Protein backbone atom coordinates (compact mmCIF):
# COMPACT_ATOMS: atom_id res chain seq x y z
CA UNK A 1 0.00 0.00 0.00
CA UNK A 2 1.26 3.47 -0.88
CA UNK A 3 2.61 5.42 2.09
CA UNK A 4 1.58 8.78 0.70
CA UNK A 5 -1.85 9.89 -0.44
CA UNK A 6 -1.86 12.28 -3.40
CA UNK A 7 -4.01 15.38 -2.99
CA UNK A 8 -4.37 18.08 -5.62
CA UNK A 9 -2.17 21.13 -5.03
CA UNK A 10 -5.24 23.24 -5.81
CA UNK A 11 -7.05 21.57 -2.94
CA UNK A 12 -4.33 22.48 -0.44
CA UNK A 13 -4.10 26.01 -1.76
CA UNK A 14 -7.84 26.55 -1.34
CA UNK A 15 -7.32 26.73 2.45
CA UNK A 16 -5.83 29.72 4.16
CA UNK A 17 -6.09 28.28 7.68
CA UNK A 18 -3.65 25.76 9.21
CA UNK A 19 -4.31 22.14 8.28
CA UNK A 20 -4.46 19.22 10.75
CA UNK A 21 -1.99 17.07 8.77
CA UNK A 22 1.55 17.37 7.38
CA UNK A 23 1.84 18.13 3.69
CA UNK A 24 4.63 16.67 1.53
CA UNK A 25 6.05 17.28 -1.90
CA UNK A 26 7.55 14.48 -4.00
CA UNK A 27 11.08 15.74 -4.71
CA UNK A 28 11.99 12.83 -6.94
CA UNK A 29 10.41 9.47 -7.48
CA UNK A 30 9.49 8.00 -4.11
CA UNK A 31 11.30 10.76 -2.14
CA UNK A 32 8.94 12.92 -0.11
CA UNK A 33 9.80 16.03 1.89
CA UNK A 34 7.47 17.69 4.38
CA UNK A 35 6.70 21.25 3.35
CA UNK A 36 4.09 22.08 5.99
CA UNK A 37 3.77 20.77 9.49
CA UNK A 38 0.32 20.04 10.84
CA UNK A 39 -1.44 22.93 12.56
CA UNK A 40 1.04 25.49 11.28
CA UNK A 41 0.27 28.07 8.64
CA UNK A 42 1.46 27.59 5.08
CA UNK A 43 3.09 29.85 2.57
CA UNK A 44 0.62 30.79 -0.14
CA UNK A 45 3.35 32.12 -2.44
CA UNK A 46 5.19 28.82 -2.33
CA UNK A 47 1.99 26.98 -3.17
CA UNK A 48 1.42 29.32 -6.10
CA UNK A 49 4.93 28.44 -7.32
CA UNK A 50 4.13 24.72 -7.16
CA UNK A 51 1.05 25.36 -9.23
CA UNK A 52 3.06 27.42 -11.73
CA UNK A 53 5.57 24.57 -12.01
CA UNK A 54 2.60 22.37 -12.82
CA UNK A 55 3.03 20.22 -9.72
CA UNK A 56 -0.49 18.86 -9.69
CA UNK A 57 -0.32 16.82 -6.50
CA UNK A 58 1.05 17.24 -3.02
CA UNK A 59 0.95 14.35 -0.55
CA UNK A 60 -0.32 13.41 2.86
CA UNK A 61 1.29 10.62 4.85
CA UNK A 62 -0.82 7.56 5.55
CA UNK A 63 -0.02 8.20 9.22
CA UNK A 64 -2.31 11.25 8.98
CA UNK A 65 -5.00 9.46 6.98
CA UNK A 66 -7.61 9.57 9.76
CA UNK A 67 -6.98 13.27 10.44
CA UNK A 68 -7.35 13.91 6.72
CA UNK A 69 -10.57 11.92 6.44
CA UNK A 70 -12.08 13.62 9.48
CA UNK A 71 -11.07 16.95 8.04
CA UNK A 72 -12.94 16.10 4.83
CA UNK A 73 -15.98 14.77 6.70
CA UNK A 74 -16.25 18.00 8.69
CA UNK A 75 -15.80 20.30 5.78
CA UNK A 76 -18.75 22.65 5.94
CA UNK A 77 -19.77 25.95 4.42
CA UNK A 78 -18.93 24.87 0.92
CA UNK A 79 -20.16 28.20 -0.40
CA UNK A 80 -16.83 29.67 0.80
CA UNK A 81 -14.99 27.65 -1.82
CA UNK A 82 -14.96 27.93 -5.58
CA UNK A 83 -16.78 25.15 -7.38
CA UNK A 84 -13.58 24.09 -9.14
CA UNK A 85 -11.94 23.67 -5.73
CA UNK A 86 -14.86 21.66 -4.41
CA UNK A 87 -14.45 19.36 -7.39
CA UNK A 88 -10.78 18.90 -6.43
CA UNK A 89 -11.78 18.18 -2.84
CA UNK A 90 -14.34 15.64 -4.01
CA UNK A 91 -11.79 13.96 -6.24
CA UNK A 92 -9.29 13.59 -3.37
CA UNK A 93 -12.02 12.41 -1.07
CA UNK A 94 -13.50 9.87 -3.51
CA UNK A 95 -10.06 8.46 -4.19
CA UNK A 96 -9.60 7.91 -0.49
CA UNK A 97 -12.96 6.18 -0.42
CA UNK A 98 -12.04 3.75 -3.14
CA UNK A 99 -8.27 3.35 -3.13
CA UNK A 100 -7.47 3.40 0.52
CA UNK A 101 -10.60 1.90 1.83
CA UNK A 102 -10.42 -1.55 3.27
CA UNK A 103 -14.09 -2.26 3.79
CA UNK A 104 -13.22 -5.08 6.13
CA UNK A 105 -11.32 -2.91 8.57
CA UNK A 106 -12.25 -0.95 11.64
CA UNK A 107 -11.96 2.14 9.48
CA UNK A 108 -15.24 1.27 7.81
CA UNK A 109 -17.25 3.76 9.85
CA UNK A 110 -15.03 6.71 8.93
CA UNK A 111 -15.04 5.62 5.36
CA UNK A 112 -18.81 5.43 5.14
CA UNK A 113 -19.09 8.84 6.76
CA UNK A 114 -16.70 10.08 4.11
CA UNK A 115 -18.81 8.47 1.37
CA UNK A 116 -21.90 10.22 2.78
CA UNK A 117 -20.05 13.53 2.82
CA UNK A 118 -18.96 12.95 -0.78
CA UNK A 119 -22.56 12.49 -1.86
CA UNK A 120 -23.60 15.61 0.07
CA UNK A 121 -20.87 17.60 -1.67
CA UNK A 122 -22.03 16.23 -5.02
CA UNK A 123 -25.60 17.30 -4.24
CA UNK A 124 -24.32 20.75 -3.46
CA UNK A 125 -22.51 20.91 -6.80
CA UNK A 126 -25.16 19.27 -8.92
CA UNK A 127 -27.87 21.33 -10.37
CA UNK A 128 -30.65 19.59 -12.21
CA UNK A 129 -28.74 19.27 -15.44
CA UNK A 130 -25.86 17.03 -16.37
CA UNK A 131 -23.27 19.76 -16.97
CA UNK A 132 -21.73 19.69 -13.51
CA UNK A 133 -21.98 15.89 -13.38
CA UNK A 134 -19.88 15.68 -16.53
CA UNK A 135 -17.35 18.25 -15.24
CA UNK A 136 -16.86 16.28 -12.03
CA UNK A 137 -16.64 13.06 -13.94
CA UNK A 138 -13.96 14.43 -16.30
CA UNK A 139 -11.82 15.38 -13.31
CA UNK A 140 -11.71 11.66 -12.39
CA UNK A 141 -10.18 10.59 -15.72
CA UNK A 142 -7.15 8.97 -14.11
CA UNK A 143 -9.03 7.27 -11.26
CA UNK A 144 -9.81 3.56 -10.99
CA UNK A 145 -12.59 2.00 -13.06
CA UNK A 146 -14.71 1.11 -10.02
CA UNK A 147 -14.48 4.64 -8.65
CA UNK A 148 -15.46 6.21 -11.97
CA UNK A 149 -18.28 3.75 -12.54
CA UNK A 150 -19.66 4.07 -9.00
CA UNK A 151 -19.51 7.82 -8.98
CA UNK A 152 -21.05 8.18 -12.41
CA UNK A 153 -23.91 5.86 -11.40
CA UNK A 154 -24.39 7.96 -8.26
CA UNK A 155 -24.62 11.21 -10.24
CA UNK A 156 -26.90 9.89 -12.97
CA UNK A 157 -29.16 8.30 -10.34
CA UNK A 158 -29.48 11.60 -8.48
CA UNK A 159 -30.29 13.51 -11.66
CA UNK A 160 -32.88 10.89 -12.73
CA UNK A 161 -34.49 10.85 -9.26
CA UNK A 162 -34.88 14.62 -9.44
CA UNK A 163 -36.38 14.37 -12.92
CA UNK A 164 -38.88 11.87 -11.54
CA UNK A 165 -39.93 14.52 -9.04
CA UNK A 166 -38.27 13.03 -5.96
CA UNK A 167 -37.39 15.87 -3.64
CA UNK A 168 -36.98 14.58 -0.09
CA UNK A 169 -33.35 15.06 0.91
CA UNK A 170 -33.21 11.73 2.75
CA UNK A 171 -34.36 9.88 -0.38
CA UNK A 172 -32.04 11.74 -2.73
CA UNK A 173 -29.11 11.16 -0.37
CA UNK A 174 -29.94 7.44 -0.15
CA UNK A 175 -30.06 7.22 -3.94
CA UNK A 176 -26.71 9.00 -4.28
CA UNK A 177 -25.11 6.82 -1.62
CA UNK A 178 -26.74 3.65 -2.96
CA UNK A 179 -25.34 4.57 -6.39
CA UNK A 180 -21.88 5.17 -4.96
CA UNK A 181 -21.84 1.90 -3.00
CA UNK A 182 -23.91 -0.34 -5.32
CA UNK A 183 -20.95 -2.43 -6.54
CA UNK A 184 -18.90 -2.20 -3.36
CA UNK A 185 -19.21 -5.98 -2.97
CA UNK A 186 -16.84 -6.24 -5.94
CA UNK A 187 -13.97 -5.01 -3.75
CA UNK A 188 -14.19 -8.35 -1.90
CA UNK A 189 -13.88 -10.45 -5.07
CA UNK A 190 -10.88 -11.75 -6.96
CA UNK A 191 -9.87 -8.66 -8.96
CA UNK A 192 -8.51 -10.86 -11.76
CA UNK A 193 -12.14 -11.55 -12.68
CA UNK A 194 -12.59 -7.96 -13.78
CA UNK A 195 -9.54 -8.06 -16.04
CA UNK A 196 -10.58 -11.18 -17.97
CA UNK A 197 -11.49 -10.86 -21.64
CA UNK A 198 -13.92 -13.73 -21.67
CA UNK A 199 -15.92 -14.59 -18.65
CA UNK A 200 -17.05 -18.20 -18.24
CA UNK A 201 -20.50 -19.14 -16.91
CA UNK A 202 -18.79 -19.89 -13.58
CA UNK A 203 -17.18 -16.43 -13.53
CA UNK A 204 -20.58 -14.82 -14.09
CA UNK A 205 -22.06 -16.82 -11.23
CA UNK A 206 -19.29 -15.54 -9.01
CA UNK A 207 -19.84 -11.94 -10.12
CA UNK A 208 -23.55 -12.30 -9.35
CA UNK A 209 -22.66 -12.59 -5.66
CA UNK A 210 -21.58 -8.95 -5.45
CA UNK A 211 -24.90 -7.49 -4.20
CA UNK A 212 -24.95 -9.88 -1.22
CA UNK A 213 -21.24 -9.32 -0.57
CA UNK A 214 -21.92 -5.59 -0.55
CA UNK A 215 -24.59 -6.03 2.12
CA UNK A 216 -22.31 -8.23 4.17
CA UNK A 217 -19.64 -5.52 4.22
CA UNK A 218 -22.16 -3.04 5.62
CA UNK A 219 -23.65 -5.46 8.14
CA UNK A 220 -24.08 -3.98 11.60
CA UNK A 221 -23.16 -0.52 10.37
CA UNK A 222 -25.66 2.03 11.55
CA UNK A 223 -24.53 4.79 9.23
CA UNK A 224 -26.09 2.98 6.27
CA UNK A 225 -29.87 2.96 6.33
CA UNK A 226 -32.40 0.44 4.95
CA UNK A 227 -32.96 2.46 1.77
CA UNK A 228 -29.27 2.29 0.83
CA UNK A 229 -29.15 -1.44 1.67
CA UNK A 230 -32.21 -2.10 -0.51
CA UNK A 231 -30.56 -0.30 -3.43
CA UNK A 232 -27.38 -2.36 -3.07
CA UNK A 233 -29.16 -5.72 -2.88
CA UNK A 234 -31.71 -4.92 -5.64
CA UNK A 235 -29.72 -3.08 -8.29
CA UNK A 236 -29.61 -6.16 -10.56
CA UNK A 237 -33.27 -7.07 -10.16
CA UNK A 238 -35.30 -6.67 -13.33
CA UNK A 239 -38.80 -5.36 -14.02
CA UNK A 240 -39.79 -8.75 -15.52
CA UNK A 241 -38.58 -10.78 -12.54
CA UNK A 242 -35.54 -12.23 -14.32
CA UNK A 243 -32.91 -10.37 -12.34
CA UNK A 244 -30.81 -11.44 -9.38
CA UNK A 245 -30.43 -12.31 -6.54
CA UNK A 246 -34.14 -12.63 -5.64
CA UNK A 247 -35.98 -12.49 -9.00
CA UNK A 248 -38.20 -9.68 -7.72
CA UNK A 249 -40.91 -8.32 -10.01
CA UNK A 250 -41.82 -4.74 -10.79
CA UNK A 251 -43.89 -3.84 -7.72
CA UNK A 252 -41.56 -5.70 -5.41
CA UNK A 253 -38.56 -3.62 -6.42
CA UNK A 254 -37.80 -0.52 -4.38
CA UNK A 255 -38.19 2.46 -6.79
CA UNK A 256 -34.75 3.97 -5.95
CA UNK A 257 -33.19 0.57 -6.87
CA UNK A 258 -34.93 0.79 -10.28
CA UNK A 259 -33.38 4.23 -10.75
CA UNK A 260 -29.89 2.99 -9.87
CA UNK A 261 -30.39 -0.02 -12.19
CA UNK A 262 -31.02 2.33 -15.14
CA UNK A 263 -28.04 4.56 -14.32
CA UNK A 264 -25.91 1.41 -13.86
CA UNK A 265 -26.94 -0.13 -17.19
CA UNK A 266 -26.35 3.12 -19.02
CA UNK A 267 -22.97 3.91 -17.42
CA UNK A 268 -21.73 0.38 -18.10
CA UNK A 269 -22.66 0.61 -21.77
CA UNK A 270 -21.00 3.95 -22.39
CA UNK A 271 -17.68 2.98 -20.78
CA UNK A 272 -15.02 0.45 -21.68
CA UNK A 273 -14.50 -2.70 -19.67
CA UNK A 274 -12.12 -5.60 -20.16
CA UNK A 275 -14.90 -7.74 -21.61
CA UNK A 276 -16.44 -4.99 -23.74
CA UNK A 277 -13.81 -3.43 -25.95
CA UNK A 278 -15.98 -0.85 -27.65
CA UNK A 279 -18.07 1.58 -25.73
CA UNK A 280 -21.44 2.76 -26.96
CA UNK A 281 -22.54 6.31 -27.60
CA UNK A 282 -25.28 7.55 -25.24
CA UNK A 283 -27.81 7.20 -28.08
CA UNK A 284 -26.76 3.61 -28.82
CA UNK A 285 -26.84 2.78 -25.12
CA UNK A 286 -30.43 4.03 -24.83
CA UNK A 287 -31.43 1.95 -27.88
CA UNK A 288 -29.90 -1.18 -26.39
CA UNK A 289 -31.69 -0.55 -23.09
CA UNK A 290 -35.02 0.03 -24.85
CA UNK A 291 -34.57 -3.20 -26.82
CA UNK A 292 -33.86 -5.12 -23.63
CA UNK A 293 -37.60 -5.39 -23.05
CA UNK A 294 -38.69 -6.11 -19.51
CA UNK A 295 -35.32 -5.37 -17.93
CA UNK A 296 -35.91 -1.79 -16.80
CA UNK A 297 -38.98 0.06 -15.59
CA UNK A 298 -40.31 1.38 -18.94
CA UNK A 299 -41.66 4.67 -17.55
CA UNK A 300 -38.44 5.51 -15.73
CA UNK A 301 -36.42 4.48 -18.77
CA UNK A 302 -38.30 6.86 -21.07
CA UNK A 303 -37.75 9.79 -18.71
CA UNK A 304 -34.08 8.86 -18.49
CA UNK A 305 -33.88 8.54 -22.29
CA UNK A 306 -35.43 11.97 -22.81
CA UNK A 307 -32.99 13.48 -20.34
CA UNK A 308 -29.94 11.88 -21.96
CA UNK A 309 -30.99 12.45 -25.56
CA UNK A 310 -31.74 16.14 -24.97
CA UNK A 311 -28.50 16.75 -23.11
CA UNK A 312 -25.85 18.61 -25.07
CA UNK A 313 -23.17 17.52 -22.58
CA UNK A 314 -23.61 13.92 -23.69
CA UNK A 315 -23.51 14.50 -27.44
FE1 LIG B 1 -23.60 -4.39 -9.92
FE1 LIG C 1 -22.46 -1.30 -11.48
Q: In CATH terms, what is the architecture of the largest domain?
A: Orthogonal Bundle
Estimate what percentage of residues fall within beta strands: 5-15%
As for the number of domains, it is: 2
What is the SS-derived class?
A: mainly alpha
What's the main sheet like?
2 strands, antiparallel
The total of beta strands comes to 4
- Might you state the CATH topology name of the largest domain? Hypothetical protein af1432
Distance between the termini: 39 Å
Low-confidence stretches: none
Written as H for each helix and E for each strand, in order along the chain, the element string is EHEEHEHHHHHHHHHHHH
Principal-axes geometry comes out as: globular
* Bound small-molecule species: fe (ii) ion
Amino acid sequence: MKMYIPVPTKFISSFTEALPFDVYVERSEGIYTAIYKKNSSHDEKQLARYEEKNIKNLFISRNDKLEFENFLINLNDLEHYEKTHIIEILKASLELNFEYLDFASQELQTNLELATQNVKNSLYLLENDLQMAMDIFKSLASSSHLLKHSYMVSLFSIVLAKRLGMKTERVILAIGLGGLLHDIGQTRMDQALFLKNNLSAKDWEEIKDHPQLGLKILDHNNCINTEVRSIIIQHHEQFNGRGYPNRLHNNQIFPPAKIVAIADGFCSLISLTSYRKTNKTPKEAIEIMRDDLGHYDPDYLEIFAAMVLQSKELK
